[in-house]
C-alpha cells in the first residue's frame, strides 16, 4: 500500500471529532501520511461528498485509501463498504450513495462489505454513533498501512447492489446543450455543470464567442443572458459573467471577481438545469 490516507467528513473542525480520527489512524500506524480532502461538506449532504471524491481521487496514486464519512444513517442497517477503484485507489464509506460519481465516471473494480461488529476499533463496541472513528478511519488506516488486505475486510458484494442516486445525462443537439449544475466552486461561487468539454469541441466553440445561457429551477427560468466563452476569468471585465472549462474539463459558469451562485441565487442538483444555445 502507498501509506496515503485521505479523509473527508461533514464534521467541521470546531470540535475534536476529526482529531480523534487522526489519533486512531496514527495508533494503527505512526508512519501514515494523512491528508484532508475536506471536512466542510454540508451536514448530511451525500451528493456533495460523492462529487468531492470525484474531484480528487484520480490525482492520487494507486493504493491511496480515501475515508469518506457523511453518514446520516449511522447506527442503522445501512452497510459499510470498501471499494477498489479502476485506478487502484480505495474508498471506505457508508453505502448510502457516496460512491455514485466514482462508479459513473471513474469505475469500481470490486466492493466488499465491512463487518462493523468485527472490523472495528478495539474497545468501541458500545459506541454506535461515531463509525467515522470506530470503523471507517480505523480500517482505512489498516488498509493504507498494509496491516490488512482488501479481501480481508469483508465479503464481496456486487457493484450493482450499491446504493446510488440518479445522475442526469447531458444532451447535445445541433443548436442546444442541456445539463445540470452539479456543484459550486464554494469559495468563489462559480457553477460547475456536467457538460463535458467535448460538447464545445463538437460545436467548435471559440474563445470570445457568446452563447445564450438559461438556468432553470424545476422548469422556471432563474437566469437568462448572453455569456462569452473565455479561457479564464481574466478574459472578461470584473463583475462580468463568463463560460469556461473547469479543472474537471466540464463547462463552468462564473463571474470575474464575484460569486455567480450568490448574485443570482442559483443552487445545485438535478432540479437545476442549464441550457446553452448557439447564437
UniProtKB/TrEMBL annotation:
Keywords assigned: S-adenosyl-L-methionine, Transferase
| Keyword Ribonucleoprotein found | no
Asked if the keyword Transferase belongs to this entry, the reply reads yes
- Which stretches make up the S-adenosyl-l-methionine hydroxide adenosyltransferase C-terminal domain? 179-273
Q: Name one GO molecular function term.
A: transferase activity
Q: Where is the S-adenosyl-l-methionine hydroxide adenosyltransferase N-terminal domain?
A: 6-147
Pfam families for the chain? SAM_HAT_C (PF20257), SAM_HAT_N (PF01887)
What family does the database annotate? Belongs to the SAM hydrolase / SAM-dependent halogenase family.
Q: What is this protein called?
A: S-adenosyl-l-methionine hydroxide adenosyltransferase family protein
- Per the UniProt record, the source organism is Enterococcus saigonensis
Amino acid at each position: 500500500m502507498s501509506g496515503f490516507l485521505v479523509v473527508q467528513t461533514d464534521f467541521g473542525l470546531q470540535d475534536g471529532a476529526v482529531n480523534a480520527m487522526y489519533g486512531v489512524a496514527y495508533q494503527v500506524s505512526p508512519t501514515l501520511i494523512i491528508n484532508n480532502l475536506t471536512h466542510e461538506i454540508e451536514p448530511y449532504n451525500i451528493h456533495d461528498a460523492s462529487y468531492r471524491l470525484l474531484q480528487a481521487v484520480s490525482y492520487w496514486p494507486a493504493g491511496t485509501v480515501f475515508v469518506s464519512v457523511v453518514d446520516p444513517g449511522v447506527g442503522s442497517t445501512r452497510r459499510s463498504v470498501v471499494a477498489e477503484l479502476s485506478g487502484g485507489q480505495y474508498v471506505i464509506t457508508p453505502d448510502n450513495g457516496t460512491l455514485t460519481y466514482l462508479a459513473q465516471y471513474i469505475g469500481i473494480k470490486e466492493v466488499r462489505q465491512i463487518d462493523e461488529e468485527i472490523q472495528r476499533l478495539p474497545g468501541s463496541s458500545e459506541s454506535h454513533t461515531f463509525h467515522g472513528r470506530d470503523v471507517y478511519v480505523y480500517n482505512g488506516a489498516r488498509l493504507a498501512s498494509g496491516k490488512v488486505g482488501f479481501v480481508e475486510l469483508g465479503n464481496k458484494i456486487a457493484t450493482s447492489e450499491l446504493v446510488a442516486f440518479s445522475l442526469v445525462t447531458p444532451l447535445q443537439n445541433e443548436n442546444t446543450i442541456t445539463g445540470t449544475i452539479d456543484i459550486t466552486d464554494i469559495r468563489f461561487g462559480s457553477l460547475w455543470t456536467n457538460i463535458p468539454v467535448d460538447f464545445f469541441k463538437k460545436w467548435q466553440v471559440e474563445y470570445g464567442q457568446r452563447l445564450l445561457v438559461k438556468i432553470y429551477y424545476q422548469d422556471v427560468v432563474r437566469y437568462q443572458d448572453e455569456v462569452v466563452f473565455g479561457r479564464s476569468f481574466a478574459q472578461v471585465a470584473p463583475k462580468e459573467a463568463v463560460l469556461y472549462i473547469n479543472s474537471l474539463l466540464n463547462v463552468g459558469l462564473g463571474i470575474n471577481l464575484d460569486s455567480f451562485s450568490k448574485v443570482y441565487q442559483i443552487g445545485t442538483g438535478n432540479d437545476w438545469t442549464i441550457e446553452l444555445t448557439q447564437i
